[in-house]
Specification:
Number of helices: 7
Shape: globular
Number of strands: 13
Largest sheet: 7 strands, antiparallel
Order of helices and strands: HHHEEEEEHEEEHHHEEEEE
Length: 287
């Protein structure tokens, strides 16, 4: 019979095993590189087509045609947001935060992309401007715009503290999608997915490996701007955690609106450009 206590003791070569050098799982040198300079030049001439103000502790949807731009801005106070993206014409193609994390890392910034779910796996949006790019990675291992957190939700809140809180990001995104597409809540909810945590400052603790948040460095005027690679339906929640310096999923934190603006390129500026094709895998899966 195995002695459980003795089986957990470190082996003699424990340090040697820990010292093995890591290997990057998905070297991204072969990824197609977006021409951010070209995108920015198109953006400079683009014309504003609309805006949506996201109320605190709520969410709103917005449409962005392929080749257009959208910008998310902090407008009144430090505020983080949870962003969902879908193919406007096919909700089965949605943002895939896990694969985006595997390809780019735990946090996104200029020149990196939001990738879509299987079987599509193609760029949905490319970040062309990030006023918080200067933040980098702090001494705690924290950085901004993460693809590691899932979104605050009422199910985890109920699991951990028995609450029935309805204005967390998952619920906000569900209501907004249901309203925008005129769907029942039960039909809209399964389409809500893991997010890009815009402006949120997060990381993992060094000792226990737990997901942490800290006060976001975002200030009014800071923004994150995207080039839409395909026709997009966006959905953004102004998180009830405000700047996420203390807690979320409650009405305690000071919260502020977020602004989404959309911009259209001038005629002729997209000549020769096409949306990226869906992934080329043949889907035979060995059969």
């Amino acid at each position: 019979m195995t002695n459980i206590e003795t089986s957990t003791r470190p082996p003699e070569d424990a340090e040697a095993r820990r010292a093995v050098a890591p290997v990057i799982c998905y070297p991204n040198d072969a990824l197609p590189r977006p021409d951010v300079s070209w995108m920015r030049s198109v953006r400079q001439r683009a014309v504003k087509t609309g805006e949506v103000l996201i109320p605190p502790r709520d969410a709103r949807c917005f449409d962005v045609p392929a080749g257009h731009f959208f910008r998310i801005t902090s407008v009144e106070g430090p505020q983080v947001g949870d962003l969902n993206l879908w193919n406007l014409n096919d909700l089965s193609e949605r943002f895939y935060s896990g694969k985006t994390r595997a390809l780019h890392g735990t946090h996104l910034t200029t020149g990196e992309r939001m990738w879509s779910s299987f079987p599509h796996l193609r760029p949905m949006a490319t970040i062309i401007a990030d006023t918080l790019e200067w933040y980098g990675i702090d001494p705690f291992g924290g950085s901004v715009h993460d693809v590691i957190g899932t979104r605050c939700d009422p199910y985890t809140g109920n699991l951990l503290s028995g609450t029935q809180y309805h204005h967390c990001c998952h619920s906000n995104l569900t209501r907004a999608l249901a309203d925008h597409l005129d769907l029942p809540l039960a039909e809209a909810e399964p389409a809500v997915h893991d997010v890009l945590n815009v402006f949120m400052c997060t990381g993992f603790t060094r000792d226990t490996g737990q997901y942490f948040m800290k006060a976001s460095p975002v200030r009014p005027g800071d923004h994150l701007e995207f080039f839409a690679e395909i026709d997009l339906l966006g959905n953004l929640s102004a998180c009830p955690g405000g700047d996420c310096s203390s807690e979320h999923s409650s009405d305690t934190a000071a919260c502020f609106p977020l602004l989404v603006e959309t911009f259209a390129p001038v005629e002729g500026d997209l000549k020769g450009w096409e949306s990226p094709a869906r992934n080329g895998y043949d889907r035979t899966h060995g059969r």
